[in-house]
Amino acid sequence: MNQTAAFYPGQRWLSNAEMELGLGTVIAVTDRAINLLFPATGEGRNYAIKDAPLTRVAFSAGDTADHAEGWSFSIESVQEQNGMLTYFGVRSDSKEKVEVKETFLAHDFQLNAPEQRLFSGQFDNPKWFDIRKQCLLQQHAHLTSPLLGFVGARVELIQHQIHIAREVGQRFAPRVLLADEVGLGKTIEAALIIHQQLLTGRAQRVLIVVPSSLVHQWLVEMLRRVNLAFAIFDEERCDAASEDGGNPFESEQLILCSLDFLTENEKYFGLARDAGWDLLVVDEAHHLRWSPQEASQEYQVVQEIAANTKGVLLLTATPDQLGHESHFARLRLLDADRFHDYQRFIEEEQQYAELAQAIAPLLSILDSGTSHIDTLSLEHIKAIESFAGKQEWLSAPEQLKPDAINKLISELLDRHGTGRLLFRNSRNNIAGFPKRILNSYPLAMPATYKEAAESGKPDIHPEAGLRKRLAPEKAMLDAKEWHDEDPRVSWFIEKLQALQGKKVLTICAKSSTALALAEAVRLKSGIRTAVFHEHMTIVDRDKAANYFAQTEDGAQVLICSEIGSEGRNFQFAHHLVLFDLPLIPDLLEQRIGRLDRIGQTQDINLHVPYFEGSAQEVMLNWYHQSLNAFEHTCPTGGVIYEQVREELGNCLRQPQDSDATAQLIESTKHLHLDMLQKLEQGRDRLLELNSSGQGKIAPFIESIQDSDDSPYLEKFMSNLLDGLGVAQEERDEETYFLRPTESMISTLPGMDDEGMTVTYERKTATQLEHVHFLSWDHPLVNNAMDMLLAENNGKSSVCLFTDKTKPAGYFWLECLYVLTGHADKSLQLHRFLPPTPINISLDAKQTLITDEFQDLQSVKGKIGRQLCQALNKHITKTLESASQLAEKQANQIMHTQAEQVKQLLGDEINRLLSLSKINPSIREEEIQFLQTQYDGLLNAISSAKVRLEAVRLIVNNP
């Protein structure tokens, strides 16, 4: 670039003040003025020749330039004649020789290279260089952090959830069964696994298949927990997409649909199966029925998609002891080759049951913290050594130390039959749950309800008829009539008044009931009320939930339809009103589970009004006296309901038949206790230990907490957002309100046009779901850094520094390089070598310096250009030295990272190869992928390149 060249018509120049105009062409030159046309925008400018704010664009041999017709060419030589430049080179596409006059250069040219911008006088305030450097440093630190995918999840740091997510999320194409009991967080575990797989590049395309009733729950969970926006696919959407041709399932990367949609639409099932997925997630997998003789349609649909998908997560809370054949069927979906013979599976499981019993004395040492136990029996030792090999110390009580036991347990976990495929935690081995207290309220049934119940009309749809008996207001067409006569309404208002100041969650079967009840409360009491039902948009549901969550001026009560039992966090409430009772035990548990979750700080009071002598009373007594389902979780409820549903239905239709009800309650109670006993006997302590993370995950959680406690992100984002033009208003000690301003340098993806409330505190984020939880994982944080790095801000900077020990005009050059490699995303190059910043600072004598510069002073454009012009040759020479040092450091980094690949992946490959000889759950494709990743990463690292990202000229002004 030449700042002092004479002006001639046809030459190309850049405006220093208006770079966005692109390349200008000299149209006319007089003694005092110059006229330029900027073809990219069609605008013209007149400048005084003296001090014109223009930079001559002149390429050199070795540069690459763009032609106005859209193709590029590499320059081999340059010829100047009558002030005009002609470039001779080779086209990049056709490789033909070309001759290009500068008039035909691309009009939208921009100076991007840092040295070009510096020499042309295009430089920024020194703060931009610092922000650019910090963005690169933080991106590198986050992409290489073991916390990637965890720090940004809006979840409590619960040991077993974090352990399972970490264990599964780090695998290539994981195929596992998540079988924690209700309330232990399977959906959170799945969300964390999906998030980690996507951020690390292990997965790009994810399909979630769930029952119809859970579609919106999953949509909300993915968005709130891990900021993943899934697209809901149904028949209407697929029909619309099919009009454009192609496979609609290939139009999105993250898709959520119901299982019913796939089973009822053969065409779209086939398209979903053939679309190609990295990860399939199936919730409520126990509904997939299978036997050696017959498989349900639902099972077959999932089986075909799973067979075409690399990774599979199945979620179910139903324990295998309640249907061992069904448990085997789910494992078949994960690995059909491994689980192909049911009888063989039973024999193998029996062996591991014997092992679990054998190690029970060893586990008691870990549980109690003691270091001594009586000598193990010979049978125990033989059972253990049949899996782990000879262990001399087992027969010596004085040597049974926790360290040795932990080492043995780790070896056994690796070899456990389904240990890599199945994760199951129960409330027996997880602490932190509240007490549940049942409060029931008998009420007299209104005459209109009694008449409807005794009408004797047969039920066209038996279960629908039973639900009307449990929620009798459904039969009343006039909403005003029922809530004026129903004594539950006045009872409800009195209960709310008695609980003044306390949050009350209320769940009804139908949205019409919820709406009418809320209106009655508003008219008769003035109590602040919010409503939440399936006919509201997700945004409106968010507003209702937020209104309920507010501690001051918020709603005292949230009245929900059944959708209120979706996966929302209402743990700040401790009172749950069940305005009616559901027919199915699993749904009752789902309702109570809105409050009864890990992290609940107080006991939960359940309030159940019911009509005496009605189906409601039968249902209440059946739940409470048979299953103890109100005060404890009921893992047997779903299975028992299927066994006694006919008898239960009869009792609900004939509530006056007390003998039949008593008989039902007694027989159900025996079934329940018998199943509970089988569950306890069937507990696999080795499997529970593997699933809980006990003794393994605590240091990792401490690292997340340390990241949460660090104030650096908040300070960094404050500077970055301020620089990008985002206004930040402090709302309170924990939250800020962000809004875009007219000075924003570009549109920031993820920033709401109307503004958004954010927090950097995990506790605040988990309590207030409408507040965005900013972390290094959050899209807004990463988009803000990407936005800055995509712009030219900070690529070149000129500033002054005061050092009285150095003469005026002495300079320093701070050069920021980036080492970058390229590889297929599935190889996860960013895990080992993400864009890596290399900072080289040299003084005027080309001596390497490590000191950070403080109190730098910005300079005006004219002075800065004069300094760059005066020091041009010295800067060029210093840049050459800096580049050589950067290459040297880059080679060292590449060598270190290659050795890390060899160590980490090499060790894992060897471990899995050894395990595969004794544990058939180790899949061959998992080992093959690791080997492919190993070779590909070494190749990508060896071919990585260094580029200059930014340069800052610091001139002494003593």
How would you characterize this protein structure?
The protein has 958 residues and is of the alpha/beta class. The protein has six domains: 12-110, SH3 type barrels, CATH 2.30.30; 155-335 and 421-426 and 683-707, Tandem AAA-ATPase domain (Rossmann fold), CATH 3.40.50.10810; 341-418, no CATH class; 434-613, P-loop containing nucleotide triphosphate hydrolases (Rossmann fold); 710-775, Dihydrodipicolinate Reductase, domain 2 (2-Layer Sandwich), CATH 3.30.360.80; 796-956, no CATH class. It is 43% helix and 18% strand. The longest helix is centred in the last third of the chain and has 45 residues, at 872-916. It is globular, with a radius of gyration of 35 Å. Helix 8 runs parallel beside helix 9 (297-307), helix 17 packs across helix 19 and helix 27 (712-724) packs across helix 29 (779-790). The chain has 33 helices and 31 strands. The two termini are 30 Å apart. Strands 12-13-11-14-15-10-16 form a seven-stranded parallel β-sheet, sandwiched between helices.
